[in-house]
């Protein structure tokens, strides 16, 4: 019988096994390093090919910085945390293929279509630079407001770029563009049920800005052109270049000059030293609702003698009890006319002369969703006929009671239809 020492491996065999394992490990490490370098070289070459222009335009070619794996991973992690990322000029050139696809332009600058390396589509708004502070203020307003918020009905800001050459904002890409293109005939019609959803979603986005954020945000430029539609035609409020913060304990902000778009701006914005509140957004939203109901622009001037203002027409029809007839002439089908009448009444409440007489956006959401009955709205637009602008003082309701700036009881706008609706909550993300 052999001893136990004969069955155990010798010291030479153990050393050989260790050496063999080390050699195999070394080969594996070498192969991994080679593959990593090759993958890195492929990424850099692909990015250079994306931004490279024809040889005939060498002065437009922008050098692309090499993206290493840790930097890209950090970038994707920051996106996942919903924090705006500060991009470089070279990154924007890569994302937009050297700004090859233009989506639109305006007084603010130009918007280009782009795409992140992970395939997410984006819209890059490049702001015009000037000696004036307007562009700088717009940049700070957009990053400072929408960069701090996240809501399903607000356009998402992925990040920005700011250096001595470029000021740009990087947004999520909205496949179906802005609402005005559909309301005013440049694109196909949207069915009424979807328009109702668009109006309600837009109202929820504004209500979030006014009532859910830590600091109230006044948008100042609510209009169809600033309501963007995603692939499912879900609305998102955009363009916060005029937006301002307002502390909740302040009843108003000082008037710093005219803001917004003529035809949508509240009348108090035209007055000197008049206190401005978030209710100016409510007025603008009412004007937007009129255009949804009519599927036309509120103002049509066919000749110097002919002036057609749709909101005044809506009030006259409501006063005569002919809203149903009006919705029929607007081409709304019978099954949708009840909702269109309700939307018309909501619009009439929103455009009241006095800011205090206008409902909060949370009440507007309840109306549009059909959860409560709407009280009869008072006559709006007194300021158009008054010689003095004192018509902006609190107005009387249809029942004869007046509004006080310190009071905002929902009972003056609507009454609950069922006891279960005594408490209403808008489904929103926290600020």
From TrEMBL:
Belongs to the protein kinase superfamily. Keywords: ATP-binding, Glycoprotein, Kinase, Membrane, Nucleotide-binding, Serine/threonine-protein kinase, Signal, Transferase, Transmembrane, Transmembrane helix. Residues 97-385 form the Protein kinase domain. This is Protein kinase domain-containing protein. GO terms for cellular component: membrane. The keyword RNA-binding does not apply. The chain crosses the membrane at residues 12-36. One of its GO terms (molecular function) is protein serine/threonine kinase activity. PANTHER family: RUST RESISTANCE KINASE LR10-RELATED. InterPro entries: Kinase-like_dom_sf, LRK10/LRL21-25-like, Prot_kinase_dom, Protein_kinase_ATP_BS, Ser-Thr/Tyr_kinase_cat_dom, Ser/Thr_kinase_AS. SMART domains: S_TKc. It is a single-pass type I membrane protein. It is found in: Membrane. It comes from Rubroshorea leprosula. ATP binds at residue 125.
């Amino acid at each position: 019988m052999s001893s136990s020492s004969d069955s155990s491996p010798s010291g030479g065999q153990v050393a050989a096994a260790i050496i063999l394992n080390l050699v195999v490990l070394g080969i594996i490490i070498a192969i991994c390093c080679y593959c990593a370098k090759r993958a890195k070289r492929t990424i850099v070459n692909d990015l250079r090919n994306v931004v490279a222009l024809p040889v005939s335009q060498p002065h437009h070619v922008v050098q692309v910085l090499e993206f290493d794996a840790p930097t890209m991973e950090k970038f994707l992690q920051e996106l996942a945390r919903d924090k705006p990322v500060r991009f470089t000029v070279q990154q924007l050139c890569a994302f937009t293929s050297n700004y090859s696809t233009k989506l639109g332009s305006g007084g603010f600058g130009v918007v280009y279509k782009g795409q992140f390396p992970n395939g997410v589509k984006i819209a890059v708004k490049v702001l015009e630079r000037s000696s004036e502070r307007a562009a700088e203020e717009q940049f700070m307003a957009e990053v400072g407001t929408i960069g701090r918020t996240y809501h399903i009905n607000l356009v998402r800001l992925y990040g920005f770029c700011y250096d001595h050459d470029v000021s740009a904002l990087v947004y999520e890409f909205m496949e179906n563009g802005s609402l005005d293109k559909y309301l005013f005939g440049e694109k196909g019609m949207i069915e009424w049920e979807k328009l109702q959803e668009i109006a309600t979603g837009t109202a929820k986005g504004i209500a979030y800005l006014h009532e859910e954020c830590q600091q109230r945000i006044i948008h100042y430029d609510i209009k169809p052109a600033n309501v963007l539609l995603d692939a499912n035609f879900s609305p998102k409020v955009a363009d916060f270049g005029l937006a301002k913060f307002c502390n909740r304990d302040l009843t108003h902000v000082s008037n710093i000059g005219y803001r917004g778009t003529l035809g949508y701006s509240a009348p108090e914005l035209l007055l000197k030293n008049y206190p401005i509140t978030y209710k100016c957004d409510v007025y603008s939203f009412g004007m937007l609702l009129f255009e949804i109901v009519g599927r036309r622009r509120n103002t049509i001037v066919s000749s110097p003698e002919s002036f057609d203002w749709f909101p005044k027409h809506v009030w006259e029809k409501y006063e005569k009890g002919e809203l149903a007839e009006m919705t029929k002439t607007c081409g709304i089908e019978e099954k949708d006319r009840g909702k269109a009448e309700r939307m018309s009444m909501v619009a009439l409440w929103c455009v009241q002369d006095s800011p205090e007489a206008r409902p909060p956006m949370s009440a507007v959401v309840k109306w549009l969703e059909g959860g409560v009955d709407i009280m009869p709205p008072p006559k709006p637009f007194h300021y158009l006929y008054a010689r003095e602008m004192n018509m902006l003082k609190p107005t009387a309701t249809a029942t004869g009671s007046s509004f006080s700036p310190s009071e905002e009881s929902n009972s003056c706008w609507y009454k609950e239809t069922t006891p279960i609706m005594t408490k209403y909550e808008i489904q929103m993300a926290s600020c």
